[in-house]
Amino acid sequence: MSTYYAGLFADVGILLLGALSVYVILATGQLSLGNAGFMGIGAYLASYLTVTLQWPLTAALVAAALACGAIGIIVGFPALRLRGIYLAMATLGFGEMVRSFFLNFEPMGGSGGFHGMTHVSLGTIWLWAGGVLLAVLVLERSRLWLELRAVHDDETAAGLVGLDTTLTKVGAFGFGAAIAAIAGGLFAHHHVYIEPANFGFERSIEFVLAVILGGSTVGPGALVGAMLIVMLPEWLRVVADWRLAAFGAFLILVLLTRRQGILDRPLLARLAFRRSAA
Amino acid sequence: MMGMRAHFAGTLLAAAAMAAGASAVQAQSREVVIGAIVPSSGPFAEWGRTNTVTLKMLEKQVNDAGGVNGAKLRIAIYDDAARPAQAANSLRKLVGDDKALAVAGPLTSSACEVTFPVANQLKIVATSQASSKPGVAKANRPWAFRNTVDEGILAKVSVPYFKKNFNVESVALIYDAKDAVSTAISTRIMPAVMTANGVKVLNEKDPLSFNTGDLDVSAQVTKLKSLNPDGVVIGADYSQAVTVIREMKRQGLVKPVIGGTPLISSAILKAAPEIPLIAPATFYATMKGARAERFVAELQPLLRKESGLPPEIEPSMYDANIYEIVSMYIDAVKTAGVSGKPEDLEADRTKLRDHVAKLKGFEGLGGPIGFNADGDAIKAFYIVQGQNGAWETKVRGCSSANGGGC
């Protein structure tokens, strides 16, 4: 594989993790526009652990994921009182708060950024991305996922049949935040430099876009979305200055024709059937 | 028989002509590829687009004059949308797919921070046309260079002029907190240099800030006015500084302004002509000098025709910088024994780096250029004053440690 494609696939892996962090939260019917904030915390924390405290990367990523999971749960509680667009606004505010915090947090470089991380290989990125995707796929086949979907479809009804909706929603926030932290840690060690601008609103939107574009009802949708968001602007370089406009047009076209995203359950089933038939 | 002989001779002649033609085609099809990473879309699209026109002009000039050592020059230009990840991937593509000998760019310091380590890893020279955040090339030796001067060096010359010319005893700081270069200028460089020159910084502990894209800075300017400074330090690029200067004019705060290289543009002069502006530059469109004037005369019509930008567009300092970078690479290919053969690519890239690292007195648009041990340019710079809608040189400086080499 050329170094160019290796670089792109590394970006796909990191974006896949970011998209999965949104997907898990979205499964309970909550839209988070602040996952770049969790990613930022993960990136800074993992970098601090590997650069300043000389921890190995795996331990740093696990610690960042656990810490961010706890922060996700803390953020998840006030978010319980909000729904729909209000929750989206609140999480957006959280993301901006984190970005502003690191902008003014001089011990980690402030706006000047932070470096010193060791470059991580493409294999390591995909070991994490693939592992988390697999975990989500396994989760999708569990009873727990049915509970998540029940909360998504009708929270009141889910509560009436005895499900702990608070635990489900907050837990999903914590799990999503942990995945975003892993994405952040890998991002920091892939680019070997981080600055607060890396974790702004655009990054959160990119995560949500990958899920909506790829398919918001199935886990592998995040993979399709991440692939398209990274690869398409590169493949569209032939149209020069119009590449971002062409990318926008493609997005609109997909959302007009496939509101649920490119991948959905029927399409997945069809693909699986073809494979087994062959 | 005669007929047969004539036919045979004719065939020979035709074969010889074809062989000659083929070798000519071979020479013509040989390419020297130089890469460039510019932000043609995204927040710095104006600079990226003018950079693109500049590079296309240079490519045509070189090829019209016979190419580089008989080979055709191709400048492979990629848009990074000012996004660090895209800049790094563009560099990978230039190295792996385009087989570029060297790369000009990326433009922003953020993109350089991510791309320069990749340049080091892949062993290719990358020279930024605009990054001036302190220490970015230094952290990525030996393959990273910048055809720019560290803002810290420039401030040491601009501040004494600012103090003397406008009798400035005190200044107040305002800056774009989202931008690393602006933050470095306003919170680290300027306060230190001002204090060293005996100028009081009124809000050193609590500088006023805004964020890139803010359209309303009235509250910050009101606070600025209440401090009653003799001068104002604006740490921002020109597009953001315009908002501050307009607000200063609206609130009647007509005090001289000083900033870093990102202030230089013709657009900022039109925002409030009555407010004097002081900034350092290595090039500006109305600069005097044969090379600079010829560059502007050739580029300006092309910019108006091809960049898709408003007709008042002028060549910027970054156009001059990227023109110098690629010209420098071409000079290196011609003089450093670069073979241009695919099998020698790695050795050629190393020769090019060694040539650039040792470069002294290369004729740039504003004077001779070389590089210091940190990878930053040793070149002449000018402290310019914006007045009556044009920049005018007030002081000439040199970025080398001992003041020589320019």
What does this structure look like?
Chain A is mostly helical. Chain A has one domain (3-199). Chain A has twelve helices and two strands, in the order ααααβααααβαααα. In chain A, strands 1-2 form a two-stranded antiparallel ribbon. In chain A, 49% of the residues are buried. Chain B is an alpha/beta fold. Chain B folds into two domains: 29-149 and 291-375, Rossmann fold; 151-281, Response regulator (Rossmann fold). Chain B contains twelve helices and 15 strands. Chain B has helices spanning 2-29, 45-64, 84-96, 109-122, 151-166, 180-196, 218-226, 238-250, 266-271, 290-306, 317-335, 345-358, and strands spanning 31-38, 72-79, 103-104, 126-128, 144-146, 170-176, 200-201, 208-210, 231-235, 257-258, 277-281, 362-363, 368-371, 377-387, 390-398. In chain B, α2 (45-64) links the parallel β1 (31-38) and β2. Chains A and B meet through α1 of A and α3, α4 and α6 of B.
In terms of topology, how is this protein built?
The complex is a heterodimer of chains A (278) and B (406).
Chain A: H1 3-26, H2 35-52, H3 57-79, H4 84-104, E1 114-115, H5 122-140, H6 143-153, H7 155-160, H8 165-191, E2 193-194, H9 201-214, H10 220-235, H11 243-257, H12 265-277
Chain B: H1 2-29, E1 31-38, H2 45-64, E2 72-79, H3 84-96, E3 103-104, H4 109-122, E4 126-128, E5 144-146, H5 151-166, E6 170-176, H6 180-196, E7 200-201, E8 208-210, H7 218-226, E9 231-235, H8 238-250, E10 257-258, H9 266-271, E11 277-281, H10 290-306, H11 317-335, H12 345-358, E12 362-363, E13 368-371, E14 377-387, E15 390-398
Parallel strand pairs in B: 1-2, 1-3, 3-4, 4-5, 6-7, 6-8, 6-9, 9-10, 10-11
Antiparallel strand pairs in B: 11-14, 12-13, 13-14, 14-15
Helix pairs in contact in B: 2-10, 2-11, 3-4, 5-6, 11-12
